[in-house]
Design goal:
207 residues; mainly alpha; 10 helices; 57% helix
Length: 207
């Protein structure tokens, strides 16, 4: 989890909502360059859904949601490079998902610490911008849950990652240090959660 979370800053995923709460139907507010990046990202998303989990994650990924018991069952016989058993990965994924609001709250708390971030001229002004960025933290956590369940630390593709990073920059989203601090907050809270529930660091870092 720790290896998977931090590199997610500036990344997104397939579907109408990709990052920053961007929706295709709201594209009129974007610059022409941002629109072009958005549609490139739809065609080439960051998360390598066709490879990771042998395609078993496609439904959850396309529907932009956390994993259901049915999704997890599809992964039971899917190839995985992880030395962790499927049962351990599944239990850890469920632990993260059951505590998703607490984990994302940690991200928000980290972002709250930046003076003026929500004020006019700040990186997350107006309020709708902040709301969409906080929704992105759920997106990041969803992708990490996918990767954890599949036991796949290398779950992205470089092209999609680069496109989304450029899109964030085009829209002047405060990647560093603000969003990165939030992502690290999820990482740290995930580690504490795993430890508090008897999952040794060696296990959750491997997953």
């Amino acid at each position: 989890i720790a290896r998977s979370l931090v590199p997610l800053t500036g990344k997104g995923r397939r579907g109408g909502r990709i990052a920053l709460g961007i929706r295709a139907e709201g594209e009129g507010t974007l610059s022409e360059e941002a629109k072009a990046m958005l549609f490139r990202l739809i065609k080439r998303p960051m998360f390598d859904v066709d490879r990771v989990g042998g395609g078993a994650l496609k439904d959850a990924f396309t529907e932009q949601r956390y994993l259901s018991p049915e999704d997890l069952s599809k992964l039971q016989d899917a190839p995985s490079p992880s030395s962790c058993s499927f049962n351990d990965r599944s239990a850890l994924t469920c632990l993260l998902q059951d505590n998703k609001d607490t984990l994302v709250a940690e991200a928000k708390e980290r972002v709250d610490a930046f003076p003026g971030i929500y004020e006019e001229g700040g990186g997350l002004y107006p309020p709708i911008r902040a709301e969409r960025c906080f929704r992105d933290f759920h997106t990041f956590l969803q992708v990490v849950c996918y990767a954890t369940a599949a036991g796949e630390p290398k779950f992205d593709n470089s092209e999609g990652t680069a496109i989304l990073r450029d899109l964030y920059r085009e829209m002047e989203v405060p990647l560093e240090p603000t969003m990165l601090a939030g992502v690290k907050g999820i990482r740290d809270a995930s580690g504490r959660l795993a430890t508090d529930n008897g999952v040794p660091p060696s296990a959750w870092k491997e997953a």
